[in-house]
Amino acid sequence: MNFSRFICYTALTASFVLLVACGTVPEVSDKDSAPTRVPDVSQIPDAVPKVEPRSKYGNPRQYEVFGKSYYTLASADGYREKGIASWYGTKFHGRRTSSGEIYDMYAMTAAHKTLPLPSYAEVTNLENGRKVIVKVNDRGPFHDNRLIDLSYSAATKLGIVAKGTGLVEVKAITPGSVKKTASATDKEPLPVKPQGSAAMFLQVGAFSTRNRAEQVKTRLQRDITDTVMVVPLEGVQGILYRVRVGPLASVSYGDSLAARLVGLGFRDSHIVVD
After folding, report:
1. β-strands 148-151, 80-88: how paired?
2. CATH code at 155?
3. pTM (two decimals)
4. What are phi and psi of 126, to 5 degrees?
5. How many domains does the chain have?
6. Beta bridge partners of 97
7. Which of 10, 80, 194, 267, CA to CA, is 20 to 30 A from 274?
8. What is the rounded CA–CA span in Å between residue 265 and residue 219?
């Protein structure tokens, strides 16, 4: 989640005192973990969306972490995206989040890089169909190829704690429009039949001409043995030709392949979920 690094960066625009205070925060290399007291998450209700004022300090128009710039969305309305979810637990339990609230790994919360703080979202595990509703009150995750960082309880209810990551869809929701999810009340949620709609690819680039995309594809095929394809996408400004590698067998393999492609000169590759 790397909140400690994030708060150091935001402190640069606030005060020197806060910047110095960041030096007492443990390094990001410290291992995170699940709690020794495992709660009955079936008794933990989903977050209930409500209208709240924006966090005073959690919504900078632009901020930078690890040399990369992020831009906070003006509104969560209409936000919907697929990607990889991770989770965070004991390492940050009891610490202040980017919104100013205290992080509680047993609550139904999450961290996101660009959604306004606070906002609410429905998160669906695309591999088993489980859904939860979380309050987004923190910034992160700042690991490449991650979309959302879930609290321990939210990740447990979705069934991704053991693996560490999961393929999800995140859909922002408007207070007053939410229906209770089944997983929020079931004593022991039964496994849901996999939807079969989730597949990971490493997108190397998107080009305005097929010829350029085919050139990149040919170059990649000289260096890797994975399947490389050109996938057209028709948009309002014409057709984009996306060069993708995959489908990928696992998140860890996607991370390692992305790192390998950086060494081959492809610095903008990232994992996408379809």
Report:
1. parallel
2. 2.40.40.10
3. 0.81
4. -70, -10
5. 2
6. none
7. 267
8. 11
